[in-house]
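Design job #97: recover the sequence.
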């Protein structure tokens, strides 16, 4: 009897199973978000001359070349979408949550009749009550 989630019975010679990962993709699989962030940070702090020198360096990795090329093109063309793409991939998308609404502190006095000191004291008291 087959188990849940198993497409073949144990010992089934008809199923080939999952194909092995090609050797050239093993490098990509080992990349961590931290590594990609470091490469982006490296290129984002370079001058144009340093960036061009790094892109023409024969010892540069393909990841460095690709990220560097995107940074160079974004800087040359002023392309905000390329910068957003890199930032989304390295630090994550900015959340689009609405900021918390400011709660009124409930002052019900006629403020025009209060002195400045009295008004400051009242605001301080109410904000401390709200924090508690």
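Job complete. Output follows.
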């Amino acid at each position: 009897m087959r188990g849940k989630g198993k497409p073949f019975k144990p010992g089934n010679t008809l199923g080939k199973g999952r194909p092995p990962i090609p050797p050239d993709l093993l490098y990509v699989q080992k990349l961590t978000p931290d590594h990609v962030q470091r490469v982006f940070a490296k290129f984002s702090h370079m001058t144009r001359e340093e960036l061009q020198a790094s892109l023409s360096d024969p010892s540069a990795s393909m990841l460095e070349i690709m990220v560097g090329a995107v940074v160079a093109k974004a800087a040359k063309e002023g392309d905000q979408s390329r910068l957003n793409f890199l930032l989304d991939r390295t630090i994550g998308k900015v959340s689009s949550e609405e900021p918390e609404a400011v709660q009124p502190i409930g002052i019900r006095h006629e403020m025009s009749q209060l002195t400045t000191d009295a008004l400051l004291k009242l605001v301080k008291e109410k904000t401390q009550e709200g924090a508690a």
